[in-house]
Amino acid sequence: MDKLKIGIIGLGTVGCGVYKTLGHIDNVEIVKIAVKNINKPRPVDVPASLLTDNPYEIVNNPSIDVVVELIGGLEPAYSYLESAIKNGKHIVTANKELLAKKGEELFNLAEKYNRVILYEAAIAGGIPIIMPIKTILAGNKITKIHAILNGTTNYILTKMDSDGASYEEVLKEAQELGYAETDPTGDVEGFDAAYKITTLATIAFKKRIKLENVYREGITKIRKEDMAKANEFGYKIKLIATATIDENNNADVRVHPMLVSKDATLAHIDYVTNAVFLSGHPIGDILLSGPGAGEFPTASSVVGDILSIAAEFGKTDYMLPMMRCNHTTTANPVKIEETFNKYYISITAPNAIGVIAKIGTICANKNISLSSILQKGVSKDNTADITVITEHCQEKLIREAVNELTDCTVNSIIRVAD
Asked: Among candidates 293, 261, 294, 299, which has minimal Cα distance to 277?
């Protein structure tokens, strides 16, 4: 049997995992691997003849059947894959940013040239989610997603919760352990999770979701005091990527911290573990959980995609039809201001008669019903620490109410998961 010939662009952590894993598979042959620095020491022993510092030696090589892109980012990755598709290559990628920003162009190009793009590793690392949605769950109408899609932020929030430490303290520790980058912006400000939920919602809802319509908020403002208060009220704080769609094609897609009830499974997804909760008909509710990143978990998904192509290569003129992009319409975006949520609000207020009554009156005037309001002690500076949890209300009304709390300092506003 002829072997499927592949070229790999990128030999970092995931690339090394893919190289090691493919070494045990007989029907795939690595023809070339593109790297930035051929002489850089690596944890894998790769023959020098396989390495090149010019990715176009892969993209333009007529003997290569599949290009595996593992460098991440928008450019030059997009240009490499655009050329590869035009040169008749199938694509396997783990690039969540590229898919979120240029997925529509790539998938349309792939269809024009009758090539497939597989990207299981781009959403939740080693957790199989794209292929299950496209195949075994294809008969379902999925209407809700709640997911933890970033291991770095989940690690930080878990450690803040368990150790009672500040965000800054835990971030430093996470960087020392290699869980967070030197520049952690992509993770802690929610960009990574936003890229992933954009593509995941597009696949699950069978409607295109535009990244620019995804509301994004990171974890940098979460305080250890918020962690402690959340626990008192029966919650954990998690960075949640959430998406819902209604019968009128209105899609509410966002990433932000949420208070998650301790009764919910997502509240107990800790450290670098990821999880995806789906709700649909007829399946009901399901949850998939596992390692969302790392050398071998991500390599598992990449190699699985490669072998899916290998299984059909040369046997059909239209490969893997169920895995192809078939979206023809774009969902209507729901602005965050128009959404309805429960809210946790932490307030520092002057210790004066009528302060709590004033908070209640401002909320009542905005048609905001309060689920609970709690004051615990008085500080040395004669201020009171007040915590409010609301019932469901509109985001824009919460913002208006907060703006009217002119005598108070609003420390945190965090949405509460249903």
From this structure: 261
One CATH from 3.30.70.260, 1.10.730.10, 3.30.413.10, 3.90.330.10 for 339-416 = 3.30.70.260
Cα 312 to chain centroid distance, Å, stands at 30
> Which one-letter DSSP state was computed for residue 335?
P
**pLDDT of 82-101, one tens digit each?**
999 999 999 999 999 999 99
> Which residue(s) pair with 238 in the sheet?
258
Work out the number of other CB atoms within 10 angstroms of the CB of residue 362: 18
Helix (H, G, I), strand (E, B) or coil at 52: strand
pLDDT in tens, 351-405: 888 889 999 999 999 999 999 998 887 887 889 899 999 999 999 999 999 999 9
Residue 103: which of 114, 89, 91, 88 has the closest Cα? 91
Q: Catalytic residues, which ones? A: 196
CATH architecture assignment, domain 4-125+295-323:
3-Layer(aba) Sandwich (3.40)
- Bond before 76 cis per omega within 30 degrees: yes
- At the topology level of CATH, where does 130-291 sit? Dihydrodipicolinate Reductase; domain 2 (3.30.360)
237: left (phi over 0), alpha (psi -120 to 50) or beta: beta
d(CA 78, CA 73): 8
Question: Which of 236, 220, 219, 239 lies closest to 228, judged by CA?
Answer: 236
